Amino acid sequence: MLTIGRPTTTAQRKYMMRTLAFMGGYVAVMVAVIFGAFDDIQGTPAAWGLALTVTAPIVGQIWTTLAVMRDSDEFVRAVMAKQFILAAGISMALFTAWGFAESFADAPHAEGWLIYPLFWASLGVVAPFIKSSN
Amino acid sequence: MRNRLKLLRVERGWTQEQLGQALGVSRQAVNALETEKHDPSLDLAYRIAVLFARPVEEIFDNPHA
Fold first, then answer.
1. Interface predicted TM-score (ipTM) of this complex, two decimals
2. Per the structure, how many domains does chain A have?
3. Helix A10-34 vs helix A45-71: angle between axes, to the nearest 10 degrees?
4. What distance in Å separates residue B60's CA from the closest CA in chain A?
5. What is the rounded average pLDDT of the residues B46-62?
6. A30, A51, A87, B48: which could form a disulfide with A122 (CB 3.0–4.6 Å)?
7. Number of domains within chain B
8. Which residues from chain A sit within 8 angstroms of residue B5, using beta carbons?
9. Least CA distance to B29: which residue of chain A?
10. Three-class SS of residue B34?
11. Which residue in A11, A134, A125 sits closest to A75, CA to CA?
12. With contacts defined as CB-CB under 8 Å, which chain B residues touch A76?
């Protein structure tokens, strides 16, 4: 959650509801994948459709993040930007390191879509510590 | 940035929420200003100055002076 504490403004409430909706969509597709709902489309053009479908909630999340930043005051906007940048940076750094570990250190393979849950985990870790815009 | 925002707010008996509404910012923003966790933009600093009818320099210490 990028907002600080409980949502107190209309923009923050909208952000929370939209985030839950987009995250719900992403989780629903992931659960369906895990339970084999799309096993039959492997190797077909429909698989590309699935790949794009699961991307839609992520694009939606970026949109709602930009929307809440637009509708928030300068302090909330600055803190959200710091949290987002830090979480994205940590996720990219960890995944890049893991990719090289796969290539050169025989680390087990990690699917590319794991970057999104990794981002949220990173955000959950860093957000409570980012309370200043300075 | 050191400031006298909390003092001015308390003098008027306002809550952070009420000051935030008067300035058009969130309660979190008011709290961050009072605890020096946010340096206001020039626009916000002037809005605060107008609200309290004081020059900006009387509310915020100039760190470069």
1. 0.92
2. 1
3. 160
4. 16
5. 96
6. A87
7. 1
8. none
9. A75
10. helix
11. A134
12. 26, 28-29
- CA distances A10 to A13, A71, B59, Å, are 5, 9, 30
**Domain limits for position A110:** 10-129
Residues A128 and A1: beta-carbon distance below 8 Å = no
With a CB cutoff of 8 Å and minimum separation 6, the contacts of B54 are B8
DSSP H helical segments within chain B, as ranges?
A: 5-11, 16-23, 27-34, 42-52, 56-59
The whole-model pTM stands at: 0.85
Q: Under an 8 Å CB criterion, which residues of B touch A?
A: 24-29, 32-33, 37-41, 44
Question: For position B30, which CATH number holds?
Answer: 1.10.260.40
Query: Which of B33, B38, B48 has the most A C-beta neighbours within 10 Å, making it the best mutation to test the interface with A?
Result: B38
> How high is the pLDDT of residue A2?
47
In a domain, B64, yes or no: no
Average pLDDT over residues A93-114: 96
| Residues B40 and B48: beta-carbon distance below 8 Å | yes
